[in-house]
# Entry
Amino acid sequence: MPENTIVKIRGLCKSFDGIIALNNLDMEVKKGDIYGFLGPNGSGKSTTIKALLTLVKPEMGDIEVFGQDLNINAKSILKRIGSIIEKPGFYERISAMNNLKLLAKYSDIKITEKELIEIFDTVGLSDRKESKVGSYSHGMKQRLGFAQAIMHKPELLILDEPFGGLDPKGSRDMRKLILKLNKEKGTTIVLSSHHIDEIENIANRMIIINKGSSVCEGSVKEIVENNKMSIIIIVDEPAEALKKLKASRLPIENISLVSNVIKLNCSHDAIPFINQYLQLSGFKIYEIRKEKALENYYLTFT
Amino acid sequence: MLEIYKVFIRRRSYIAFGAILFIIVLLLLAVNYEAKNVLDFMTSNLKESFSFQGNLVNGNLYAHIVMRSLWVHIPMLVVLVTGDLVSGEYQSGTFRLILSRPVSRFSIITSKFISGWIYVLLIVVFLAVLSLGLGYLFLGNGDLLVTNNTINIFNSDDVLWRFGLAYSFGLLSMLTVASLSMFLSTIFNNSVTAVLASLALVIVLTFLSTFNIPVINSIKPFLFTSYMGGWDSFFTFNIDFGKIILESVLLLVHIIIFYLLGLYVFIKKDILT
# Structure
């Protein structure tokens, strides 16, 4: 395994009661990646993550993490991983602080009270650290989940649906934290999410999986660029504008009129020329916007 | 230690202690205020042949009544907590956090079983200390009257060691019940199912053990519930130690088997909840 590969999965298979969850899945996460993990419900995202964390035993396939076989070196590998898996479960009858202390003991981590307080500050729970977790909202539990995932300064952070249940501010804070950890500490991050926007905005590499298999894997930029952008144009006389655009020599494809809205494919650089051309032709332009490329691409598979 | 701590942060762990305390105090009041009736009830068939003198309603008699009355119910209280020990963590999702950390499943499940056993030990010690302590405190010491098919009266200084051994044997049978429910707890992701399955199994096995039908008699030696009443053997004059040792070994074998089965299930299990 190349030195900069952190996670390498080959031919992973798993089924539950005869239903295939993972079907020969391959994926590769490189050092320093924010690796987006995209797929519809039941596509196998959580199963893959659980297999990476030894919660689920694959039937076939190999998982290497930090260049070591997960089957053989699980303990030393898991020491270097932090994770949130779905909705984090805590001991509700004890305080958030005691929950983290308990988990630190399980992980055999020496962590001081001061360091724990800093972690609570980081996730924005410092004023509720002594409250029982039973009194926490879902969003607060999610933040606490993030706290336990980062408290031992992991090299690899696996986040399964980390934005679920968070309000917009919570999502923004968590996004900032993820980016900060990646940028400042070089933490490699695997991020599974239904939020296509989040993956598109945060991740540098990604995989789309469906029915337990990889649909595509690569850099987010490449995947987006390889799929020409859809543009939506709203003008005062759409039928006339459509004729004009069809007759023009502009680098556009697949032009059509849908519900008085012009839809076409073009490169990013062509947009200003389209805008200028329509203006010079005397049309009133109310809106030109990009359709989310990744979303379109994702939806073709799912 | 972590697992013991986790047992005692759960509210349900105190239910057994509360229930035992309540019943013991209630029985103490009943025995204290109904002393004559208690003795009359116990000796009703023997009064024509024997005359009873002295303080027979005492702490020893009370402790023996407590053992007889509660021993049937203690397994229920034990199962309530031990049946939830593993499945409760599946259900709450805490195993997802713990098992994704560098900790072996072997050590987790072994600690779980040990914490369950320690909990059972505490329950049995609590029952023993409380019944004997309150009995001696409020009813005083005296000879112990035990009525089974025969009537035995043990001298007051010949009683404590019998209680000690009876509770030790009783502890072994409660540990077997706890081990069974912890094994079932490793199978089910829902603690209510695990507790109910354990209770149902204990009740069915106890029922089979007490039934006197030839077909069932042949399988009785294989049912651990057949040996759970063995503690009463210590309240006879001719104690069959050979039989008691054999029964103890059989209970111990059951404990080991349930532990190994629990270990196997837990190590193989996919944590999906």
